Amino acid sequence: MMSFATRSLSRIAFALVLGVGTCTLPAAARAQQRPTLIEIGAAEIERLGIDWIRPERVPGRVVLEAPAVAVVPPARETVVSAPVGGLVTLLHVAEGSEVAAGDPLVELRSVELLEAQREYVNAASAARLAEAQLERDRMLHDEGIIARRRLDESEAAALAARVHAEQARQQLRLVGADDRSLERLASTGTISPELTLRAPVAGVVIEGRIAVGTQVDALEPIVRIADLSELWLEARVPEQRVDAIAPGMQLAVDVRGRTHVGDIFQIGRTVDAGSQTVLVRARIGNAGLALRAGQLLPARVVAGNGDVALSVPRSAVTRIDGEAFVFERAPEGVRPVPVTIVGEADGRVQIEADDLDHGAELAGRGVSALKALLTGDEE
Question: Quick one: which of 85, 94, 78 has its CA closest to 175?
Answer without folding.
Answer: 85
